[in-house]
Amino acid sequence: xxxxxxxxxxxxxIICKNGVILASDKRVTYGYMMTxxxxxxxxxxxxxxxxxxxxxxxxxxxxxxxxxxYSKLYELENNRPITVKAMAKLISNLLFNRQMMPLLMETLxxxxxxxxxxxxxxxxVGSLIPDPYIAAGSGAPIAVGILEAxxxxxxxxxxxxxxxxxxxxxxIARDIMSGGSIDMLLxxxxxxxxxxxxxx
Length: 200
Description:
By secondary structure, the chain is α+β, with helices and mostly antiparallel strands. It has a single domain, classed as Glutamine Phosphoribosylpyrophosphate, subunit 1, domain 1 (4-Layer Sandwich), CATH 3.60.20. The chain is about 30% helix and about 35% strand. Strands 10-1-2-11-12 form a 5-stranded antiparallel β-sheet. Strands 5-6-7-8-9 form a 5-stranded antiparallel β-sheet, covered by helices on one side. A two-stranded antiparallel sheet has the order 3-4. Helix 3 runs antiparallel to helix 4.
């Protein structure tokens, strides 16, 4: 089975003026078969950092467990939380070290620290790219069109959340591998809010 057949999802990340949005649909596919309507692809790593994925569920879960463990270890050793950039570099290194047997997923790391809101994307072998908005997964070509047309640097967190929902809904309407409802993280300096957006 080709790598792109594992990418069934529409996952987006958006930098706003006061935070970061991470969101994804809940459909889980294996090739062209839908295996679940309730997969979690957006994970709260800490009060200031979140992860979002498109790809194979087992690989997402394994990477999330590892990232949480490393973030707690970093905090114990340094007596301060890990930064968004350091977490992105750490996950990039973990992915690069597995390049001979890569984890079949695209990874988004987003959060807010003293440097402000930051968002990074990674491919299965760890290429690390910062961007103000990102779309990943099989629905990305559709979602990114909405993001490019409507993204503004001064988006509020609520407007960013609305844009993320619009981009994912547009992809769900046209991409058979994306579907279900939407999980979302709204990350700001005051903490992280988890939302579930049901779709009819």
